[in-house]
Design a protein that fits this description.
Blueprint lengths: L1 H4 L1 H8 L28 H10 L2 H5 L18 H18 L4 H10 L8 H11 L6 H16 L6 H8 L19 H24 L10 H7 L3 H15 L19 H23 L2 H19 L6 H5 L4 H11 L2 H12 L1
Helix pairs in contact: 3-6, 5-6, 5-10, 5-12, 6-9, 6-10, 7-14, 9-10, 10-12, 10-13, 11-13, 14-16, 14-17
This protein binds magnesium ion.
Magnesium ion binds next to helix 5.
Length: 346
């Protein structure tokens, strides 16, 4: 019956009215392992569902964004961050007539590879593991391999590309990137990630008593607004306006880009570097950070020494013990890592 309804085909046909610059599910470069199409959902809708149902996604709720294993209920976690990115990105994608399903799938999967203890965990693992550790590469490793007992989620090329290329350098949002994103939907997620964290990290820092609204650089605040919701709104509206040419109906030779106006971008960059100076860097030197680092170092040494104690699934899918240990630690939530370290230390 459903087969006869051709629901997916109808959705795919509707996608033809999207921007000529949008990624159409029908034209996807496909999956590593070929699969039959779903009668109802497009390939990108299916990818989104696979991400939502995977174990790594569930664990995001107990992973640090900025404040380590915070006791307050209102701090942002990796999960709420991910949901905010997804919502902002979908708003932008819909306004620009891009593929909202693809955008959502990339957004929901972009941070799956984050370690416990946020960037402290990531940096420590990167120091310990001689092959280098980056959360965006780990996100890809999770969806390609680690989920579903080593089979991975077998996602489409477009979602995988958006996930691995979402990272920005510390110094510039549009400067040297991790990699070029292959779709505009991926670009939308990358910029929405920044809009989300600049705003919620200010909120969390105020909540933690590290700063007050008055401390924020006032020239930037004049541009983006003095309230949380205003700031997000200014940035989102500005992205839509500045990127409007991606929506147009004639094929443009050179692919247009997702961007901000120079004025709003300068304000966003200013807030971002302010956060580095006032919040992220001092946080790196805090007692919490030192403790988090000790936990990661301890677990790293312990499991490299006792490879037999590593859960089987992390031995099976890794070429080396170090790779398996990195996968295991990266997958832990803050609480799990803390608990395990205490348990093993006796
Ligand atoms: Mg993120």
């Amino acid at each position: 019956m459903i087969e006869q309804l051709h629901v997916r085909q109808l959705t795919e046909e509707r996608e033809e009215s999207l921007s000529p610059n949008a990624a159409k599910s029908r034209n996807s470069k496909g999956r590593e392992r070929k699969e039959d199409s779903d009668p109802i959902r497009t390939c990108f809708q299916r990818d989104r569902d696979r991400i939502i149902h995977c174990m790594s996604f569930r664990r995001l709720k107990h992973k640090t964004q900025v404040f380590i294993a915070p006791t307050g209920d209102h701090y942002v976690t990796r999960l709420t961050h991910t949901l905010e990115v997804s919502q902002i990105a979908r708003t932008v994608a819909r306004a620009l007539n891009l593929n909202e399903d693809l955008t959502e799938a990339i957004a929901l999967g972009h941070d799956l590879g984050h370690t416990p203890f946020g960037h402290w965990g990531e940096d420590t693992l990167n120091e310990l593991y001689d092959k280098s550790f980056r959360h965006n590469e780990q996100s890809l490793r999770i969806v390609d391999l680690l989920e579903k007992d080593g089979r991975g989620l077998n996602l489409t090329w477009e979602v995988r590309d958006g996930i691995v290329n979402h990272s920005k350098s510390q110094y510039s949002v549009f400067g040297k990137q991790w990699g070029e994103v292959g779709t505009l939907e991926g670009e939308v997620v990358r910029i929405s990630d920044m809009v989300a964290y600049i705003n919620h990290d200010i909120g969390d820092a105020v909540r933690a008593g590290i700063l007050t609204e008055k401390d924020l650089p006032q020239d930037a605040i004049k541009v983006v607004g003095s309230r949380h919701s205003q700031r997000i709104d200014t940035m989102v509206t500005d992205i839509v306006k500045s990127s409007w040419d991606v929506r147009v109906n004639d094929i443009i030779k050179e692919r247009p880009a997702i961007k901000m106006s120079p004025e709003v971008l300068a304000a966003a960059e200013k807030l971002r570097s302010f956060l580095f100076t006032r919040v992220y860097t001092p946080n790196m030197e805090s007692a919490d950070a030192a403790n988090a680092k000790n936990v990661v170092v301890f677990l790293w040494k312990y499991f490299n020494k006792h490879a037999d104690k590593l859960p089987a699934e992390y031995r099976l899918h890794a070429d080396t013990t170090e790779r398996g240990v990195a996968d295991y630690i990266a997958g832990m939530t803050d609480q799990y890592a803390l608990r395990l370290a205490v348990e093993l230390e006796g």
